[in-house]
Structures are given as structure tokens and as C-alpha cells.
Write a structure and sequence with these properties.
The protein is an alpha/beta fold. The chain contains ten helices and 16 strands.
């Protein structure tokens, strides 16, 4: 296929056509987010099949997306390279259990992408996402604001949905965040959670049948959602794919939207030299600004613990990999 472009259009390159990657591609096309979509995978037949299958549905898409199976050379003109490749989380595994095996995979992938002359934005989905986002920045040498992870965007979406279901209000009118590691040490920011601008701590007192003691189990269902889904169907992929599309739209549309992506922290929330999920203004440049909410003392302690967990897992693995390549 001739992929020579006569004019600059938005191009997204997807690396990893597994369940998450193929769901992301499907959602991108259905929402007409990008004009070009390139699919790269070690399993060339699978990636080629996905491109064919997606192209066959173009007649039903709201806008034409030029889609093909490609290679790393296609990254040279990409606006976004979204990495969904890597080992999947198995039943009983935590996201952090995946760190060493996926870090090795990423070193090769990022090197191949950068060799193409890529100068866009990395969007990382593979777990442990915060650690792999930081590894991608180290491996690529790109500015930190142009390397972003999906972070706690999905966790926040799950949180908003479960709260909306509990209070019987539209999800769009629930404003509440999950921050920290995308994993077992993440935390809900109850002190800043609102329903239509009304603090949840106040709103719950006005609702018959709603009780303060019900809130902790709601968060626990958010935190443990992936384990529940993996146990039931083997993998999570629709929700994370939709969150990746939302981040992609914010970047390509220069939206200045606030999303809890995994962003580099350099003093915000008392954390330094680490990526974590926090409310972030996202636009065409990647991260425009990290928003620093005022946390309660308990929330700050929980956030500190989450950051410590990330660093204690990431630093030895990164150092081991760098020493092995010398």
C-alpha cells in the first residue's frame, strides 16, 4: 500500500494488537479520532487481519480513517505512538509483578520507534503503566511532558460510574478522582469529590438510603475491578481502550482537558522523579500542567505510600536493565 502523504494529517501508531490494542483501534475508528491509524505487531498476520477487518467497516464509520498494517518506519511521521504491547496480567498477578518482563520488551520497542526519527507523543497503556511510562521517557530521551501513561484514567472512570450508580445521577455530573499508582496502592480523593458541585460528604446526608459507611466498599470495587474482570473473562480491554481514546482525543484536539493520566511529578504532591496518575491538563503538547489538589492528611499519607511503592519497584528493575545493557 502506498502510504506517502501529500499533506500533514493526524497519525496514530498502535504497537501491540492484542485485546487492548485492537479494542483501542476499533474505538478510534468508531469515534473518528484520527485520519491515519497504523497497526504494528510481532504477529504480522494478526495485525494485517485487524487492518483488513477494520477497513471493511469503513462504510459505517462517521469519518474515513486510513488504516494499515505497518512497521516502525511509519512512526517517523506519527503524532502519537500508543504502546499496548507486552505481557498480560494473569489471574493472581498484580500489575507490579509484570515490571521486569515488560521493561525488557519496552526497551526494544522504544529503541525501534526512536530510530525512525519519531518526535511525537508516547501514550503508554501496558502495565505496570506508571513504571513503564517512566521507563519509556528514560529510553526515549523525549521531554517528560511528551511521554504520558493511561494512569488512573480508567480507575477514575470506574469510580465516577460506581458513584453515579449509587447516587442515581448521571456519571458526567460526578467529579471525583483516583490518584497514585494504577494498582493496589491507588487512593480515592474523597476530600475533593462532588456531585454537581456539592461535596459528597454533604450530599450523602441529604439522600435517604445512602450512608457514609457505603463509600469505602465503592472504592474497593474500583481498586479491585481488574481482578474481578480478569477472573470472569480473562482480561480487561474495553474500558482501558475507551480511556486511551479519550486521552488521544484530548491530545489531537488540543483540548486542554483534565484527565488523570500518568504524569511526571517534580515536586507536585511532594513527589519527585516519578510518574503517577494525577489530574493533568492535556493538550497537543502532551502534559500542559499538573493540577495539585489540596489533599487531606490521610490522603497525603496514602499518596506518599503509593509513590514509595512505585519507586521501590521501579528503581531496582530499571537499574538492573541499564546495567545489563552496558
Amino acid at each position: 500500500m502506498n502510504t506517502t502523504r501529500k499533506e500533514k494529517v493526524n497519525r496514530v501508531v498502535l504497537i501491540g494488537a492484542g485485546l487492548v490494542g485492537s479494542s483501542y483501534a476499533f474505538a478510534l475508528i468508531n469515534q473518528a479520532v484520527t485520519q491515519e491509524l497504523v497497526i504494528i505487531d510481532l504477529d504480522k498476520e494478526k495485525a494485517m487481519g485487524d487492518a483488513m477487518d477494520l477497513n471493511h467497516g469503513k462504510a459505517f464509520s462517521p469519518s474515513y480513517t486510513n488504516t494499515w498494517y505497518g512497521d516502525y518506519n511509519d512512526c517517523s511521521d506519527a503524532d502519537i505512538v500508543c504502546i499496548c504491547a507486552g505481557a498480560n496480567q494473569k489471574p493472581g498477578e498484580t500489575r507490579l509483578d509484570l515490571v521486569e518482563k515488560n521493561m525488557k520488551i519496552f526497551k526494544g520497542i522504544v529503541g525501534d520507534v526512536m530510530d525512525s526519527g519519531f518526535d511525537g507523543i508516547f501514550l503508554i497503556a501496558t502495565n505496570p503503566v506508571d513504571i513503564l511510562t517512566q521507563a519509556t521517557q528514560v529510553f526515549s530521551g523525549l521531554p517528560k511532558e511528551r511521554v504520558i501513561g493511561s494512569g488512573t484514567t480508567l480507575d477514575t472512570a470506574r469510580f465516577r460510574f460506581l458513584l453515579s450508580d449509587y447516587f442515581n445521577v448521571a456519571t458526567q455530573n460526578v467529579h471525583a478522582y483516583i490518584i497514585g499508582e494504577h494498582g493496589d496502592t491507588e487512593l480515592p480523593v474523597w476530600s475533593n469529590a462532588t456531585i454537581g458541585g456539592v461535596p459528597i460528604s454533604n450530599y450523602i446526608d441529604t439522600k435517604e438510603g445512602c450512608h457514609q459507611e457505603d463509600l469505602d466498599p465503592i472504592f474497593e470495587n474500583v481498586r479491585d475491578a481488574a481482578y474481578q474482570i480478569i477472573q470472569k473473562k480473562g482480561a480487561t480491554h474495553y474500558g482501558i481502550a475507551m480511556s486511551l481514546v479519550r486521552v488521544t482525543k484530548a491530545i489531537l484536539g488540543n483540548e486542554n482537558s483534565i484527565l488523570t493520566v500518568s504524569s511526571y511529578l517534580n515536586g507536585e504532591y511532594g513527589a519527585t522523579d516519578v510518574y503517577a496518575g494525577v489530574p493533568t491538563i492535556v493538550n497537543r503538547q502532551g502534559v500542559r500542567e499538573v493540577l495539585e489538589m489540596r489533599l487531606s492528611d490521610k490522603e497525603q499519607q496514602q499518596f506518599d505510600h503509593s509513590i514509595e511503592t512505585l519507586k521501590n519497584t521501579m528503581n531496582p528493575a530499571l537499574e538492573k536493565l541499564q546495567n545489563a545493557s552496558r
